[in-house]
Write the structure tokens for this entry.
Amino acid sequence: MVNDIVIFDTTLRDGEQSPGASMNMEEKVKIALQLEKLGVDVIEAGFAASSKGDFEAISRIAEVLERTTVCSLARAIPSDIEQAAKATQQAKRRRIHTFIATSPIHMQYKLKLSPDAVMKKAIEAVQYAKTLCDDVEFSCEDALRSDMGFLREIIPAVIEAGASTINLPDTVGYRLPTEIGAFVAQVHSFVKDSAMLSMHCHNDLGLAVANSIAAIGSGVRQVECTINGLGERAGNTALEELVMIIKTRKELFSVDTHINTKEIYPTSKLVADITGICPQPNKAIVGKNAFAHESGIHQDGILKHRETYEIIKPSDIGMVESTSLVLGKHSGRAAFKDKIADLGFSLNDEELQAAFTRFKHLCDSKKEVFDDDIRAIIGEETTHIPQVFTLSLVQVSACSNAKYCAAVSVVRDGIELSDSALGNGAVDSVLKSIDRVSGIAGTLKDYKVESVTSGKDALAKVVVKVEFAQANRAVIGHGIDVDTMSATAKAYISALNSYLSMRELINNK
Ligand code: KIV
Ligand code: ZN
């Protein structure tokens, strides 16, 4: 146990700071449950004092997780620490993570505080956090540009005040692996066993994973990561890469992790679906091409002996053949239920019935139904966001002067409402019709369409990012359908429903 690396996942906090990666409460809870399944040790579920939405999401995650430690970030100020303590109150295991910047540039220009004042605030914050929670982590923000002399004073002082984990962020992703190794070794020489050292790397120079590995080599026993390397600016250490490096090159490490690597791909996919941020195709481990062999020589080698060109098996990260044909028009409920269990989902009766009905409809318009089609259906049918609006019909036609006309019907409170609009293109006309029929105007910030599987009749999956007037962040919506305009309308309505549920949550607080 002493030699195991604590995997601290901050997808829901630093990851959510990725531009455009905001998630609603239900999506955060879904991700947290999947992270628990993945086997992470600590989940930083948010920054409780930053918004009501974050506070609510942390509280809900604290209620539902069984084994994983739930943590909230807090600045080194009493009100933040109180919010973090309150939000994590219900968790079986909980942590408060408090931080203050320790580098000269941050202390002088951002905090406008002297090192002595920073030291005082850090000690008081940790002491206070310790009165509210047993497990306290302290971060020296911008540690890797801090003066070692100051760190030698502040780190022992906060350990004395009650911090059991000391996190060393390379906040601006500035350092190289050799520098990180030497830096951690120095800190380790005076911290010894008095606290666990943690590394938090940013990827501005593309070195976050390499730097985290170097830190492990010098004595760090916690690494802060995110799924798909999401995070502020260029992101954080990618969990999937770090974990697979340790697993693949285990002869070089005296440490292991508690991660169930077969849950890596499902977790990556869930986070990509929810945030709308897909890993680039050549991204290590989880990119679409990570296991694709294009050259004839490579394909020949793989066929003769897999290890000629493959150091990781796709199944090691839970990537299963997405093209496996599953069920057809004549498949019954029992076969559908078995398939769902095979794919690792557990649905209640109501969700199962909704997914089965949807599957039957799909069979009417699509000859072959694949595993990924089923996954997409389940993703849509298991949402717990109140469906204030549901789509009942969309029709689009081309008019003269490059204009398009859309007619849309939606159902609200059992009443069908219809309207139509002209637009500069099919998508524009559909979205304008929805704005008119709902009475709520949104601005489309991003639009992506991709096919769920292959074939001319493949399901279209549309992800939209929409800004609504009173929301301070863009909201993401998803829609799938064999018809791309229906998928577009569903995605936009799903963003609208998500926005309405967030507004309701905030107004009720
Ligand atoms: O990058 C950073 O310094 C952080 C801290 C708040 C831990 O995210
Ligand atoms: Zn960070």
About this structure: The pocket of zinc ion (ligand 2) is lined by residues 14, 169, 171, 200, 202, 232 (CB under 6 Å). The CA atoms of residues 329 and 363 lie 5 Å apart. The chain has 16 helices and 16 strands. The mean pLDDT is 91.
